[in-house]
Amino acid sequence: MNTLLAERLRNDAYDIPLDRLDVSEAGRFRDDTIWPYFERLRREDPVHYCKDSLYGPYWSVTKYRDIMAVDTNHKMFSSESAAAVSIVDMPEECRLPSFIQMDPPKHGERRKAVSPIVAPANLAKLEGLIRSRVKTILDGLPRNESFNWVDKVSIELTTQMLATLLDFPFEDRRLLTYWSDVATTVPQIGHEIDSWDKRRSILSECLAYFKRLWNDRLDGEPRDDLISFMAHSPATRNMDSSELLGTLILLIVGGNDTTRNSISGGIWFMNQNPSELRKLRGNPALVSSAVCEIIRYQTPIAHIRRNALADITIGTKTIRKGDKVIMWYISGNRDDEVIENAKSFIIDRKNVRQHLSFGFGIHRCLGNRLAELQLKILWEEILTSGLDVKVVGEPERVASNFVHGYSVLPVRIVA
User: Which residues fall within 8 angstroms of residue 119, CB to CB, at 6 or more apart?
Assistant: First the structure.
């Protein structure tokens, strides 16, 4: 983005009367113009009330420490009463409960049933498989012609991993990507998903598919996959269809959208910051640090929602019982009061693990180490193979205020 355009966008953000500033407009995420709006809120009104938006009234929490305070206080800021993880209030018949929308003790019981899949011992077992798949994917990429990195690498790698974790039929693995995209889509007239009924119908197909797998697992001996864990756990084996689908969608979206968008973001950021790529090529020991910085800089889930269980004051603002509270991780990760030079992409920054992308508290991302592992192996193999991935066009971003990601990243590998 050139300097004049950046200045114009910044002026736009600062010209809006503060009480009319609404950071939930999805188009600003699609156009990558959201940054000055969050900058202004952090400076002038870090706990901001928007009384009128497409999603109704809501509070924005935009600074790092305030977000942590909300995220770690589940006794005052409830996931369960929100009945949603995002700013969108779904029709009641479309709501799908899952453990991320539960408060203790139910949340912990459900989460514990699936957590062995990302235990250190299991991750160690998966490392060789991930590396072999990464090598196969990278070796099979076109040379000297442009292609979409999102489709051929980011989606393919994460979808293969999801199929393994679920022991899902490998030949149908792209269904997982499709269902993930449908689940995170807010229906709009003129788009593929144009009604809540259509969205519900497609996700019903997802449920029917998984129920066949569920019944197979239930009838067999326990196995090391997520469906089997849930089918044989006393905490989850009796979930009704709605909660089963909600839990499956949570696992699919969590394992798909977040990692795939960090994979794409990493390529984009390295191309935008060639000195950081040179730094990494010169010192491959920085891969783990670079991965943390990619995840911070991308912030693949832009926000998470809670509802206030009682009146509570944050800073100078009093949030009322029942109010919708949006923690904008994407803004907190650019908070200069906590993260030095936060607007810059610096792969060897101090305290590089200090970011909000995985959340905090009891709802901290279950698969964070697996996400880091996939990114680490991918970058190790890119460096080892000497792959020179050039971005050859502007990325196309997803029009979503929730999933912060890409649909297209045109690249060319120079052979």
Answer: none
